[in-house]
Amino acid sequence: MPDTQNTFHPNVLVTGGCGFLGKALISELIDSDTPFQPGSIRVLDVLDPVGNTPKEVEYIRGDIRDFETVRNACEGIDVVIHSAAIVDWGAKEIPIISDR
């Protein structure tokens, strides 16, 4: 029987966790041998989650460009996996890029 008393239970923040790469990373984390507690994988994304939310995952809707949002999302976190990105559909299609 494994010693669960001394097992490290990491708290992970995944930025962009609702995107293609982020969802794949979260799936791999949950399927790994690492024992994640409910809510110990935190996702920060401007997108809303689609489908069922695993018990290990807590979603925070927010923008990584907002310092306070990121600071609050990082509270109590051991590891950050940054997978947030702007998908390049062309500058005219993305107001964030075309306005600058």
CATH superfamily: NAD(P)-binding Rossmann-like Domain
Output the structural class. alpha/beta
Distance between the termini: 58 Å
Strand content: 15-25%
Q: Average pLDDT, to the nearest integer? A: 87
As residue ranges, the low-confidence spans are none
The CATH architecture can be named as: 3-Layer(aba) Sandwich
What gyration radius follows from the Cα positions, in whole Å?
15 Å
Order of helices and strands: EHEEHEH
Spatial strand sequence of the major β-sheet:
3-2-1-4
Counting structural domains, the number is 1
Determine the fraction of residues in helical runs and give it as a percent range.
Answer: 10-25%
Number of strands: 4
Envelope shape? globular
Largest sheet: 4 strands, parallel
Counting DSSP H or I runs of 4 or more residues, the number of helices is 3
CATH topology term: Rossmann fold
CATH class: Alpha Beta
Task: Furnish the topology, listing elements before pairings.
Elements: E1 12-15, H1 20-31, E2 41-45, E3 57-61, H2 67-74, E4 79-82, H3 95-98
Parallel strand pairs: 1-2, 1-4, 2-3
Question: What's the short story on this structure?
Answer:
The chain is an alpha/beta fold and 100 residues long. The chain contains three helices and four strands; from the N terminus they run βαββαβα.
Word description of this protein:
- The chain is an alpha/beta fold.
- The chain has a single domain (12-98), classed as NAD(P)-binding Rossmann-like Domain (Rossmann fold), CATH 3.40.50.720.
- The protein has 3 helices and 4 strands; from the N terminus they run βαββαβα.
- A 4-stranded parallel β-sheet has the order 3-2-1-4, with helices on both faces.
- Helix 1 (20-31) links the parallel strand 1 and strand 2 (41-45).
- The N and C termini lie far apart (58 Å).
- The mean pLDDT is 87.
